Amino acid sequence: MEEIDLNRPDLYINRELSLLAFHRRVLAQAKDTSKPLLERLRFLCIASSNLDEFYEVRVAGLKEQVQFGSVQSGADNLSPQEILNRISVAAHDFVDEQYRLLNNEIIPSLEKENIYFLKRDQWNDAQNGWIRDFFNNELLPILSPIGLDPAHPFPRILNKSLNFIVSLKGKDAFGRDINMAVVQAPRALPRLIEIPADIAQHPQDFVFLSSIIHAHVADLFPGMEVLGCYQFRLTRNSDLFVDEEEVDDLLRALEGELPGRRYGDSVRLEVADNCPEKIVNYLLKKFELGQKELFQVNGPVNLGRLIAIPDMLDRPELKYPSFTPGLPANVGRNLFSTIREGDILLHHPFQSFTPVIDFVRQAAADPQVLAIKQTLYRTGPDSVLVDALVDAAKAGKEVTVVVELRARFDEEANIRLANRLQEAGAHVVYGVVGFKTHAKIMMIIRREGKKLRRYVHLGTGNYHAKTARIYTDYGLFTCDEDIGEDVHKIFMQLTSLGRSAKMRKMLQAPFTLHSGMIERIAREAENATQGKPAHIIVKVNALTEEAIIRALYRASIAGVKIELIVRGICCLRPGVAGISENIHVRSVVGRFLEHTRCFYFHNNGNPEVFCASADWMDRNLLKRVEECFPIENPVLKARVIEQGLKLYLADNTQAWVLDSEGSYNWLKPVEGETPISAQQTLLLSLAEKS
């Protein structure tokens, strides 16, 4: 039998184009009229913010490759320039769809609910007067219009800030001819301002900050004629570069790099669609961009800032129903005694994150607790969990925290919390040079009688109380001795930088997780070859790692049934005859961001189930410190299989199925079929109230 070439480029979907396809699935939620109106608006804003980050990081990286003459291609064999060309076409279509949706569907629907964004020609006399006062009192004192001449060159434009290019006629106070000026909107001010109720035309009237500046921009240039005023926004490369091998203090090096993020290389220009071509070309030249990086939009240049609206409005009928996260029946007041009785598995956001916080709070107050060790990747600026760690350190506990300073876009917050923890007396380390610490692990060491017992929390998501309300994640509490020993070894690696020690039950990146997954995939393939039942179910956020993909292809060829639930990027191409026809891929996109990473291997009737902090990506498996932990309790194992995996495979309302052409198709119930939403089912079964 001729060996199949599993390196063929047509077997791999491009990573960046797959990520754009995910953003389009998010945008599709905003088009779904069955969703509450303000949630549709929220999805529109999330899709816009996703595209921002895509340009700041992914497109910026590709442009750098082109700039340095790189022709390196991935498994799909596309060059960086070819990928950029395809991204440009897809992204322009994406943005056009965003604004069509905003202008033709969302805004008219909001108006039917008496929520209006008033344009300048809709302001009545009372509103004009109030807006004039707002401009004079709130804007005029802090605006700094910059006329462009040899003494006033084009100003540095902050990344993603709102700006206006103003066309002028006449002479300034010094008799100079000024044809052009730039006005930069203050970042501290909201982009939407609510009109006071006593002068509003409707129950809720808003005006855009950009409309106020447009209306009164002439006041910034007395004695001159304003010929035109056009909003624009520049997106810049926001990746940070720190040569970790050359710096002695990573924290100080990152502190020095952070300000530069605001002024990285230009990657995208958004400008009002009524801006004259001459001015557009002027801006493109200034920012060294071409037509492919230009987006001319019919509306506010930053849709992401509209996400403030749902929180500004007390309209519960236009939002998802609120709910109270539940708690497992076996969670008692004293977590240590509860964990000794048996493992606890929390499924956020359907179940509460509070026990995780209480775990540290109880440890801080417990005289029997000697030490607390924890990793922190993202926690948020005002973290109650960090508050608890500070209290523990002040109470005299031995507190060791591994803070990942390089968590993208959270670097500044993590530097602040690291300093705060150190001031409280905690030991703070910054992980390992060259390997981000992405593991979500916590260990509390407690004296019980004549011995020490380790209590452990392991998670698939960050220790972040806010995202625990909107991301789906698993968290396991256990005092299993083998897992406690494994977690102890991981902390020893992170703090002492000693050699990797053999794990008893857990898998760990960058050492055993990659090979451990490939071995288990190969075992299923061998079982299938021998005529035994073989089945793999995987739920991850992304699948890009080529060796894993090839292993899955080999398993499929051997006859293994493979079901993949991949929320975002998937570079594997399912349904290819003779290669991946036994592989099925779906993505579930709904109210909550799917974030759990779970792995099921049939193992000839003795199933193995793991949860992990890691996706099946090159960076997670080979370039990060990650944890992967077994679910061994039979009841909890069955819960993960039934609720965390099979329920998502049964979803026929929020699932998108990936076909062999690389396209996603939204799955809908056929006539007579019961609609199933995995997230809604979990809400009803696990939350206290929905």
Automatic annotation (TrEMBL):
GO terms, biological process: polyphosphate biosynthetic process
Domain Polyphosphate kinase middle: 127-308
Domain Polyphosphate kinase N-terminal residue range list: 12-117
Post-translational modification: An intermediate of this reaction is the autophosphorylated ppk in which a phosphate is covalently linked to a histidine residue through a N-P bond.
Alphabetized Pfam families for the sequence: PP_kinase, PP_kinase_C, PP_kinase_C_1, PP_kinase_N
Active-site residues per Swiss-Prot or TrEMBL entry: H438 (phosphohistidine intermediate)
PANTHER family named in the record: POLYPHOSPHATE KINASE (PTHR30218)
Function: Catalyzes the reversible transfer of the terminal phosphate of ATP to form a long-chain polyphosphate (polyP).
Name under which the protein is recorded: Polyphosphate kinase
Organism the protein comes from: Beggiatoa leptomitoformis
Organismal lineage: Bacteria, Pseudomonadati, Pseudomonadota, Gammaproteobacteria, Thiotrichales
